[in-house]
Amino acid sequence: MSNIEADLASLIAPGRVHRRIYTDPAIFELEMQRIFGAAWLYVGHESQIKNPGDYFATRMGRKPVVLVRDAEGTVRVIHNQCAHRGALVVATNNGNAGEFICCYHGWTYHLDGRIKAVPLNHGYPQGFDATDPKMAMLPVPRVKSYRGFVFASEATDGPSLEEWLGPMRTSLDDMIDRAPDGEIEVAGGVFKHSYEGNWKVYFENLCDAAHPLFTHRSSIDAALEQSDDVYSDGAGEIAIRQMRQNAAPYSFWESQVGIWTYPNGHSYLGDYHDDAKLVAALNDAVFRQYIAALERKKGKAEARRILEVRRWNSNIYPNVSLMSQFQQMRVVHPIAVNRTVVHTYTFRLKGAPEQVFRNAISFANVVNGTGSLVLTDDLEIYNRLDMGMSSEGAEWLQIGRGYQSDIPDADGGRRGKNSTSEVYIRNMLDAWLDLMTKRHAPPVRAAS
Amino acid sequence: MAKRAKPKTKPANPSRRAVLVPRHRATHRTAEAFDLARCERFLQHEARLLDEGKFDDWLALFTPDGSYWVPSQPDQDNPRDTVSLIYDDRRLLETRVRRLASPRIYSQEPRSRTSRIISNVSIEDGDNNACTVRSKFLMVEFRREAQRLFAGTALHRLVQVDGLILIASKRVDLLNCDAPLDGIVVPF
Fold this sequence. Notes:
heterodimer, A: alpha+beta, Naphthalene 1,2-dioxygenase Alpha Subunit, Chain A, domain 1, 9-stranded antiparallel sheet, 4-stranded antiparallel sheet, 15 helices, B: alpha+beta, Nuclear Transport Factor 2, Chain: A, 6-stranded mixed sheet, 3 helices
């Protein structure tokens, strides 16, 4: 191990982590190279680029990239950077184009990033060759779609996407399976929220079953006290059910939810709702229609199997988290060691009643909305974590809950005996250390 | 959360009941026609309630089926098919306002201070009973150590009930509605 690798390894101890991994700018820079510059990252969904020429501009880590369907229909991810002077080429979030043209000197690119035309191409030194593959909006080396979810990796080799996802594929499957027609599409706009804190704390919070009862107390109390007899156009229904469900007692959070983790940092929290409380009671007309549509297309047994998959947030390390029951997807964009932006998307289940999609929109508003009664308290936590962790007052942070009681699970996984085990944090830090120190198999479980 | 003694009794929470009787009775007693000056006075009254943190009084300005909407996209058609920064029917709006009074609303610890300017008021359409009022606003929010600036357009659907102006719906189009934003807690 080099000095830096020994240093990084020294920041993680059994049940503890040093605050520097959340606050040290040098470590963040290394994360951009070794995690966001190497691992498989979720980039976007094929439904965002249905036709040749459709593009969606996004970021991989801090790097601007373009997800595009080229003239032949192939899905590409290329760096959004002109080969000439380095300017950003695609300046709009999405659209359709026949070619990409840099606004500076008019260098023009094919949709797959290859150069098409260079104005004034005389006068360059000998050896200048506009057909050189390096003269391009450079392609990201590996691009792979898993059933429409497009991932890309800056590493030319390494585990395949399917190997990387491992058993967490089933969470992506679950999102698609829930569509009676077996197809989903991004729809309903995007939320973008930002906070002054490290990207890792966002991921950690998504599987944290111990915080809602405390952090979300103000919305829990307000929702519990809310009269159901006042006028509603239906929009507030799911929001209020969700806030009330956060009032489940600690005994419930401990024993009824479940937390599962898998190699490469992935994890999911079990669902903490029952149908009567959140999704839709069986006597709900829309839900009945939805089940009927699912049964018609997939058969009763398969419909039943699908509806019995009960997961809350599924974190696919290091940059995407999804919630299949309400078709939510959150993509994490680290901006700086202490600044993070998260984009959240909703999917439409094709073949489901339109009201199912509208329910997903209502759900998005309460869990992912910038003005949500719930998320705003989470954002406050992320900001306060950074304000606190930046202090040298306490160097070591505790991530040990459940440390001695976690249970090995199938497929190399590990789950908490209690649902409030912090096994998902330890599991992410294992993956973090693997990537940061390029430590390879067999994985050494330093933290769990 | 600063440690504080647990209150022995629950804080009074007037928004618990459905508020049907507005509290600005004194200002508008008779069924006058909607004119620009009266609408401006109403919007300034609303802005002052919000700046002063009198959220229960603000809630009382809404009709029993009133709604409050902050779209996430410019020119957003409706709140059903696209996500919204805020879309509250009456029931959720009551919950929002009740939460603002909670001693455990951590995203308001410390509390925000706001200062708003309402201007460029125009009556878009309407009659003696109801009208749509368009206005521009600037709101500065100060919290902890930072100040944020919000600007945009508000569309109020105002109605007269027993000579009082009430808000049937309020739509707030933020200039930067599709920007990455930290949490929005104090209503616009």
